[in-house]
Write a structure and sequence with these properties.
Helix 1 runs parallel beside helix 7 and helix 6 packs across helix 7 (195-218). A hairpin with a 5-residue loop joins strand 3 (60-64) and strand 4 (70-74). The chain contains 7 helices and 10 strands. The radius of gyration is 20 Å and the shape is elongated. The longest helix is centred in the C-terminal third of the chain and has 24 residues, at 195-218. The protein has a 4-stranded antiparallel β-sheet with strand order 1-6-7-5, covered by helices on one side. Strands 2-3-4-8 form a 4-stranded antiparallel β-sheet, sandwiched between helices. It is α+β, with helices and mostly antiparallel strands and 262 residues long. The protein has 2 domains: 4-129, MutM-like, N-terminal (N-terminal domain of MutM-like DNA repair proteins, Alpha-Beta Barrel); 143-257, Helicase, Ruva Protein, domain 3, CATH 1.10.8.
Length: 262
């Protein structure tokens, strides 16, 4: 599932290939991908416009195409973007295609149809109306605010990190990586964490996400020091030599070190 770092790369891809291009035609190849926007409305409001701004918030991507007219993309489990010049090369699972005046095409692909393509008049209104939490890389999310958000909650730390109503954009993989770096057990009750432990989660959350964005932008491999390279029960922890264990937290498969994560 695309998480914040993947969607940040999609936003940069969209900016590189779609901004400034006039939309000559909109093709909705599968109406099931559309959210609350009807097909006819979607096509009418985008045809003839051009994308001028792109913005990411958590796992959501917004692109402005006219006054109070924003394309909204959520990538679900298998969403992706593809830019190409030959219309005969429409991707197999293309659900919506934007044909540009310049001859290029941008497709939103989604094999499993868990994604959403629709319109909103304002991203901030959408974020508020859908109770989407703060973006973890937003400069406004300082440590004090992060602590305050967590102090209002009860339960294990991992599901809270993954709650899109608390902070938006962290999924299973990067929640595990954050807690591995912070030396916090994924089942640790948030109300039993010390201020220093909460700071470690906050600091490593931002560090992990920034590192992942940089890695994906450069198409580099995950370093061996990262948990993502050791997600197998019984593997050796690259940090302390402990045993990597597997469990289920909040319905999600979870990997952690049995020695240094407490």
């Amino acid at each position: 599932m695309p998480e914040l770092p993947e969607v940040e790369i999609y936003a940069r891809y969209f900016q590189r290939h779609a901004l400034g291009q006039r939309i000559a035609r909109v093709r909705v190849l599968d109406e099931r991908i559309l959210g609350a926007t009807r097909k006819a409305t979607f096509i009418r409001r985008l045809t003839g416009e051009q994308f001028t701004t792109v913005r990411r918030h958590g796992k959501h991507l917004f692109a402005q195409a006219g006054e109070r007219n924003w394309l909204h993309l959520h990538f679900g489990m298998t969403g992706d973007l593809a830019y190409y010049c030959d219309p005969a090369e429409d991707p197999r699972f293309a659900r919506v295609v934007f044909d540009f005046d310049g001859g290029g095409h941008l497709a939103f692909e989604d094999m499993r149809l868990f994604g959403i393509v629709d319109l909103t008049s304002d991203p901030d209104d959408y974020i508020r109306e859908h109770a989407v939490g703060l973006d973890p890389l937003d400069p406004a999310l300082r440590l004090r605010l992060f602590r305050r958000l967590m102090e209002k909650r009860r339960g294990a730390i991992k599901p809270l990190l993954m709650s899109q109503q608390v902070v938006a954009g962290i999924g299973n993989l990067y929640a595990d990586e954050t807690l591995f770096r912070a030396s916090i057990h994924p089942l640790r009750p948030v109300d039993r964490m010390t201020p220093d432990e909460m700071k470690a989660v906050y600091t490593n959350m931002r560090r992990v996400l920034n590192e992942m964005v940089a890695l994906k932008a450069g198409e580099g491999d995950y370093p061996a020091r990262m948990l993502v390279q050791h997600r197998e029960e019984g593997d050796v922890c690259p940090r302390c030599g402990g045993e990597i264990r597997r469990t289920i937290v909040g319905g999600r498969t979870t990997y952690f070190c049995s020695r240094h994560q407490r």
